[in-house]
DNA sequence: CCAGACGTTGTT
DNA sequence: GTCTGG
DNA sequence: CCAGACGTTGTT
DNA sequence: GTCTGG
């Protein structure tokens, strides 16, 4: 699955990689946890241009009575996303790119867990396959939230964990964002991508969701040589 | 018909 | 909102 | 994902 | 054990 990730690259790198004109200032996020505000790109039906959009991580479907459901909907399995009531509408017309440049997975080692950090070999930022929703709270205020699609782990990630987030190829960003593309077979064909990943163990400081320092993504000194 | 769920992961 | 279960 | 709370009454 | 918060 994907329960933590990072976005620490420059505004310039984001503007270039995702072809958006204006990227607002934001603080580097070494340790992004569910419920936090995250950077995304979406394309609305009314808007022709893709736009940078901040969202809350944890999908709150438009029909939800309570925003707490968002804590459970941080991931959507690609194998079932077109069937599940919570995701069925969003997969058709409310897809987004969730901006990241690395992600964490935890490996169970007996009683303890060891976090690992994954990134692209070229260190470039990338887009997770995401879905978004609008939700109005009881005071009528709009909340925009999102979830990350997951798939079976590839060869690299499987050494640590059974599931991994879906990283889209830059060549399909436009189609993924196009809300008029509603054919589920075509949509699901877009997620076929298996980029080479670099992985190393990191400090368990990252376990604490409020810890947001550069050493989150540094290789652990006493590296566990199992990979 | 109404009521209740709507999710993933990991562990047992 | 929409589907499933009773 | 992991960490941390999980409760009420009454008094300060 | 289960839920909430980050």
UniProtKB/TrEMBL annotation:
InterPro entries: SRAP (IPR003738), SRAP-like (IPR036590). Its EC number is 3.4.-.-. Keywords: Covalent protein-DNA linkage, DNA damage, DNA-binding, Hydrolase, Lyase, Protease. SUPFAM superfamilies: BB1717-like. It is an enzyme of class 3 (hydrolase). It holds the Pfam family SRAP. GO terms for biological process: protein-DNA covalent cross-linking repair; proteolysis. Signal peptide: none annotated. GO terms for molecular function: lyase activity; peptidase activity; single-stranded DNA binding. Belongs to the SOS response-associated peptidase family. This is Abasic site processing protein. It comes from Planktothrix tepida PCC 9214.
